[in-house]
User: Which sequence fits this backbone?
């Protein structure tokens, strides 16, 4: 059959044009080579290649390393749940926290995990609104990371109440009519946090699922096994790729991105209110909301790189997650790392300039007191390490980037530890001074949360497309009806 | 099993071809037809003369519900049903009620958006005669389709088929109603 279209492709450029004659050709000079951007998918891969490469990962049997990795992660996760059972049956005394440091590893771990989630939302929502097309290769896995990180985060504040049934059930945290006739106290930022984090987890899940629907339809249509076809079919809701559906879908996706953007900024702001609204020297500062948000994005991008670099190597996805993607993420690390470094400096300046002796003491104690080692670990990891990324050579060296990303993860955990423990351990009266040391339960509960995170992530890679098939296709030239690779004729001669 | 023809499904190979086909089918005056693509094609809504999506109204309704639910819930719990003075602060002001109401605004906006999306798209849909076509499986992979329904007043088995052929369809298939 003749492939020549009845209407010259040029007409498509003007959707309202009913003219069946070819429009006059404009002679436009090609842009200079150095201005051309590197393509988002390398080697000019076809649409089918993209489907096969991404869907193939979760259709073929998992590589040999998957089972050992899964058993190790699931075992670590099991250890965490056993330790939680031990804590609930014994009491919070199995952890090392006590007066004056009533918050220690528990809330450190909570803020650490919540912060990690923020990169996923930033990539999926903020970069979507800013039309950063490179996000398409990494947004799916980053959003999955968000949801799993929020799941890990949620465990700690619930468990640290000790008698968790009180926290969850009769109206201390979640408004619930109860026989005591009491209601939660909405003047407390801790309660704002409950709503912020639960909304964040829910909306991230909805956004992630919305993005998954067309890809689940792809997996349904490729499925060879009845069970797979049934489940992918069920969750893809009967998606066909109808343009009448796409029209609503695109609008809904844009709105969800628009909702997630103020949400992600509010979540870590509210987390910082847990501290900033209190009167504790070292916590009571107005810089906290923007500083926490920048730190969250910094830590999240660190975790995205820690996960993506091995994933792209193990599943051979170099043409989709390219060196350019890694470089761009390094630039985000550099920018947010610089903001974090500035905030550390500004905190010290204000502690001195504010003229409150308690505030100044809290900061001197942070850097030179008994927890000096945690402060300087934080500075090394968060302030110094991102500045290697001023150099392109280092940004494009994936092994180096991976090592720095691990430093960022460690540094951001220390940041929360520094903020929480160093501000608490020396109260106003020297008689209320103490030194917090974690117990083995503290340590292994935290290690176990990585088990939960990795178990969920490995299951995600096993059953769902780790990269958005639809969105990656949409940014290729084949998807553009005005590009020669998209079938346009008569544009380029 | 009745075998009532539902319409003609034409397959196209490139994004440009499907765009041209959509423009031509629209200009021919068809109303009951659709385009199926593996990804959203920029400009296709105009090419099909689709109106702006109404999803936003559902978002707005959800958001409004969320905000007022938050404010009235906090007023009811902290001022009306269980008034407890803490630190000499007022029992209710919209200021401390704002963060929670803000989160609920976003939460219910998101649910409203998804509910609107499902409703406007009539999803989930358990049965679709198009899925009987083996060819149509590639609509979620790398092929592009136009489906013109027999229910359209302009539909004619021969003329519509000729139009689709002229537009460069690489295959044309009749879709049957597979419902028992």
Assistant:
């Amino acid at each position: 059959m003749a492939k020549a279209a009845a209407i010259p492709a040029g007409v498509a450029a003007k959707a309202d044009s009913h003219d069946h004659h070819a429009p006059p050709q404009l002679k436009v000079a090609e842009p200079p080579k150095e201005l051309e951007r590197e393509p988002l998918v390398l080697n000019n891969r076809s649409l089918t290649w993209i489907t096969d490469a991404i869907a193939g990962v979760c259709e073929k049997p998992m590589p040999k390393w998957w089972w050992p990795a899964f058993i190790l992660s699931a075992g670590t996760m099991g250890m965490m749940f056993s330790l939680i059972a031990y804590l609930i049956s014994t009491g919070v005394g199995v952890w090392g926290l006590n007066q004056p440091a009533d918050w220690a590893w528990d809330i450190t771990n909570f803020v650490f995990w919540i912060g990690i989630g923020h990169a996923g939302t930033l990539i999926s929502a903020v970069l979507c609104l800013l039309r950063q097309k490179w996000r398409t290769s990494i947004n799916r896995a980053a959003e999955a990371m968000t949801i799993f990180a929020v799941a890990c985060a949620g465990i700690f504040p619930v468990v640290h109440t000790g008698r968790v049934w009180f926290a969850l059930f009769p109206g201390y945290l979640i408004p619930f009519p109860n026989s005591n006739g009491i209601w939660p106290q909405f003047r407390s930022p801790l309660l704002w946090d409950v709503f912020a984090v639960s909304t964040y987890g829910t909306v991230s899940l909805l956004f992630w699922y919305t993005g998954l629907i067309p890809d689940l339809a792809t997996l349904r249509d490729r499925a060879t096994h009845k069970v797979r076809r049934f489940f992918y079919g069920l969750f893809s809701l009967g998606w066909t790729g109808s343009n009448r559906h796409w029209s609503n879908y695109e609008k809904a996706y844009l709105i969800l991105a628009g909702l997630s953007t103020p949400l992600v900024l509010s979540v870590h702001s509210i987390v910082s209110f847990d501290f900033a609204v209190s009167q504790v020297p070292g916590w009571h500062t107005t810089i906290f909301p923007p500083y926490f948000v920048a730190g969250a994005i910094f830590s999240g991008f660190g975790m995205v790189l820690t996960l993506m670099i091995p994933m792209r190597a193990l599943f051979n996805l170099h043409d989709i997650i390219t060196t350019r993607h890694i470089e761009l993420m390094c630039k985000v690390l550099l920018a947010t790392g610089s903001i974090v470094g500035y905030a550390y400096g500004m905190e010290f300046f204000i502690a001195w300039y504010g003229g409150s002796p308690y505030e100044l003491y809290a900061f001197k104690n942070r850097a030179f007191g008994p927890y000096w080692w945690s402060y300087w670990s934080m500075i090394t990891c968060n302030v110094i390490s991102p500045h290697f990324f001023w150099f392109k050579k280092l940004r494009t060296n994936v092994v180096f980037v991976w090592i720095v990303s691990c430093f960022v993860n460690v540094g951001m955990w220390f940041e929360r530890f520094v903020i929480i423990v160093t501000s608490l351990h020396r109260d106003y009266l020297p008689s209320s001074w103490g030194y917090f040391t974690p117990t083995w339960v503290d340590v292994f509960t935290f290690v176990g949360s990585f088990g939960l995170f990795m178990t969920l992530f490995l299951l995600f890679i096993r059953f769902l497309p780790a990269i958005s098939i639809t969105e990656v296709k949409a940014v290729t030239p084949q998807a553009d009806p005005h590009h020669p690779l998209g079938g346009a004729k008569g544009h380029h001669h | 099993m009745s075998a009532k023809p539902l319409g003609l499904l034409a397959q196209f190979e490139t994004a440009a071809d499907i765009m041209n086909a959509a423009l031509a089918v629209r200009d021919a005056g068809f109303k009951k037809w659709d385009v199926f693509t593996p990804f959203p094609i920029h400009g296709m809504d105009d090419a099909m003369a689709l109106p702006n999506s109404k999803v936003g109204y559902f978002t707005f309704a959800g958001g409004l519900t969320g905000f007022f639910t938050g404010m009235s819930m906090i007023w009811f719990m902290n001022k009306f049903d269980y008034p407890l003075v803490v630190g000499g602060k007022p029992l209710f002001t919209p200021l401390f009620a704002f963060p929670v109401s803000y989160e609920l605004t976003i939460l219910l906006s998101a649910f409203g958006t998804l509910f609107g999306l499902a409703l406007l798209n009539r999803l989930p849909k358990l049965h679709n005669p198009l899925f009987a076509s083996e060819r149509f499986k590639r609509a979620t992979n790398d092929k592009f389709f136009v489906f013109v329904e027999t229910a359209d007043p302009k539909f004619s088995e021969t003329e519509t088929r000729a139009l689709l052929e002229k537009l460069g369809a690489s295959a044309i298939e009749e879709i049957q109603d597979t419902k028992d």
